[in-house]
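Hi R.,

Here's the chain you asked about this morning:
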Amino acid sequence: MAEILTLPVIAIVILLLYLLSVLNIIPEYERGVIFRLGRLLPEAKGPGLILVFRPIDRIVRVSLRTVAMDVPPQDVITRDNVTVSVNAVVYFRVLEPRLAINEVENYLYATSQLAQTTLRSVLGEAELDELLAAREKLNVRLQEILDRHTDQWGIKVSLVEIKAVDLPQEMRRAMSRQAEAEREKRAKIIHAEGEYQAAERLVSAANTISGEPIALQLRYLQTLTEIGVERNTTVVFPVPINLLEGFFKRDGMSDAVASKKREPVGAV
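And the predicted structure, written out as tokens:
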């Protein structure tokens, strides 16, 4: 009699356990792709409480959150024959869980491989200067190509960013010398421009002073004032050039007299 009562109890316990296994809770950021007797159901289940009748049904959970996938460093030969190592990051998310599960074996691995090959092919068509200075343009091009190829898998690539470009040591030294030469050229141009502007100002000042003779005397006095502020022992007395003209004339007359005295006296 006890064995007869035990069998229904065991059956009820098994049924309760099965019913508990049928209940599945899908969070908001996931969807459940259901295969019933091997056939894909038309709609993904979730979020919330869903029923999965095993072994008739099989559920595959797919995350709808954005995935940040790191693309490992790739050796790329640019169009101008420079070998560089480039790595990037790809941001994508699943929009159609049924396609991501049914159309490709492993959508994460497939997207990673596609990102690596696309990175090598796109950057191989660009020159080194474009790779270093026009990354935004290359990022947009990479994103468009990846998004077009992964659309059939139900995946949306939202962003591709080139993270780092590693150059060979020889190329780094050459670029350093180029940058140094460019800076030196700019410095010389700026210095020459400053000299040119200073010369123009000096010419303008000389024209102004030549029109007003007293201005030169005032400039002399201002210079004396500036020298006196420094508390030095040097004293400068400005002497106008016109005061020395008399000495110059006198020396010229004495030279003329001396030359006359040295001339031989002719016979009468």
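The radius of gyration is 46 Å.

Let me know if you need anything else.
M.
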